[in-house]
């Protein structure tokens, strides 16, 4: 929030020194004690040479149809001649003149330019009449559009030619731009900020006073209000003001708004914004004569209801969720967020309804997010407003409408709901404070901090009983009180001690070590890590999921239409990465990703199950052609990706891995896909991505795998140990087997390992033959079995006996013929 220190000083008995050095020191103190300061600045910055000028004469330029020659009085003995193209310049106006030699900011580059005398179409011009946008005002806060011309003071301001325009416009007032945390809603108001600064400066706060004069006509004769659901608002009331005259606000009010970063609109709207800045209480004004009927309702939006808000956008309201203020016929505003165009206060308004309320913060936040409509009002309602200031701000606003718009305040407030706030009283002992902070404060010392904060308290000699003020919605427990003491005492003043007691060395858990090892293994096998979005479309979320009928996890408020659903697999994201690389002329790709997938529970209100997965893809050439080695390029195939999976599982410590051919994965090639098991535990799958899927994206064959990393880690041995290399010779036996074509290599290997003894160290399939001279439906597979002992030389009889057990098992279990 932008905080004008000159305005703040009115509530702190002018105790803040506005000197530049003092302001810098104050900003540093605020940062150490309270909140961060984004910037300390003034609207003027380094500009100078701007004065108030009275336009004495306006003559047409002899050589231009859009410029005029003016003579202006700036309090000097002679008039100053200025040529201008401003469409609104006229005799008698008080305007802003940049004199020759003035330093003017360039609103595009931010640099300062020195103004020099010039000739415009043959006429001397000694200065420039300026619009506020030309002297550093952002278009968002300037009260008039740049196209309307130069800025003109109201003659009722009692200004004199030659006065310093920067000072009169409030541009020299130092402004602290505070970067508030969400809990400090109290500092979204000048009064709340005054209490904060007063506590730091040990100054009491003076609350502004006002006189409210009510006329005889009762407000209840002109409007009534009704709330249909008590959960929508804790407080709601309106005041009626008749016979208002819409116009520009006085300069003092406009200065306060634009120094706070808000644009002056008209006197009624400006008053509501002024109250919001002062009390932190958003208010809204309706044009009473635009209401259909005299009844206002606080209710939820109805089905197919629409509203055009003040920004000109048509909003489709969500039935049962958005809070609206409505008449019998239509919605008037999104409560707590923005008013509607159909009841806007404009130049023809004569009677107004002022609204003050505390709306349900959760519903306001949901509405603001749903419609992407975050306003100054919603920011305050979401964080919590001062319960005790709502109706005070409403009455103060009505009083100002009387003063600044000539209105007549109808008698009485019309109230729909006024829920009483329960006081929160917390007890605190000096022993507890000193135990937490390491200090040696007495109860009297602690009481002084609460006096600085303007908290009500009683001291019974043993403890303090502190009543939390309504303005501090961020406080509710004892720890909050101790934090207030700590920051006012000064964090730098707290005693510094070394930690004591036994210390525990930090280390990674077994699961963390296994995840980290998984990444290292994948990279050692030649794959590069990819990181994809966890959010995707519903189709891609389930593309390679194990259960494609399971419910997806959808976001209530997605960032975009293609990031609405939490993923249930990693391969879909890796395919996007492959497509991206191919589109950028990278064709040889080896990627892996490790991350969470999200599985919805049956109860949609529960958080989804999160499972760690690891996946990888290969495409392009595994080997490239080279004249040096006279080899041809070789495209990746199923055995390359399977080899990576096998090497990974072996290194991570998973034993008894088997691969079972499957066609159950609809997005995988039905003839080149296998499910992966460790004994009987399912780990994942490996194979070729279905050609229909890759060809649609103009990709070459893509091979991939996806593993449940939790299942892998559960199946892995706790430690992978090094086995020494045997110094004794190996022995091998070869077997040619005639088998049915339906019998898979993995099944044969499983039978061999199950029948062989501990001396078998390797199984190699070195020949496959199908074709002539073999019975129909048969094929010949040739295996080499390698035996070795780590402790002694093998005996041939032992090897022969083992080999015979293997062949007998193959014959009995698979009905093979040993040739």
Automatic annotation (TrEMBL):
Residues 44-166 form the TRNA-binding domain. Its cofactor is Mg(2+). Its EC number is 6.1.1.20. One of its GO terms (cellular component) is phenylalanine-tRNA ligase complex. It comes from the Bacteria. It holds the Pfam family tRNA_bind. Mg(2+) binds at residues 474, 480, 483-484. SMART domains: B3_4, B5, FDX-ACB. GO terms for molecular function: ATP binding; catalytic activity, acting on a protein; magnesium ion binding; phenylalanine-tRNA ligase activity; transferase activity; tRNA binding. Keywords: Aminoacyl-tRNA synthetase, ATP-binding, Cytoplasm, Ligase, Magnesium, Metal-binding, Nucleotide-binding, Protein biosynthesis, RNA-binding, tRNA-binding. One of its GO terms (biological process) is phenylalanyl-tRNA aminoacylation. CDD domains: PheRS_beta_core, tRNA_bind_bactPheRS. Its main location: cytoplasm. SUPFAM superfamilies: Anticodon-binding domain of PheRS (SSF54991), Class II aaRS and biotin synthetases (SSF55681), Nucleic acid-binding proteins (SSF50249), PheT/TilS domain (SSF56037), Putative DNA-binding domain (SSF46955). Residues 726-819 form the FDX-ACB domain. Residues 421-496 form the B5 domain. InterPro entries: aa-tRNA-synth_II/BPL/LPL, B3/B4_tRNA-bd, DNA-bd_dom_put_sf, Fdx_antiC-bd, Fdx_antiC-bd_sf, NA-bd_OB-fold, Phe-tRNA-ligase_IIc_bsu, Phe-tRNA-ligase_IIc_bsu_bact. It is found in: Cytoplasm. Belongs to the phenylalanyl-tRNA synthetase beta subunit family. Type 1 subfamily. This is Phenylalanine--tRNA ligase beta subunit. It comes from Leuconostoc gasicomitatum. The gene is pheT.
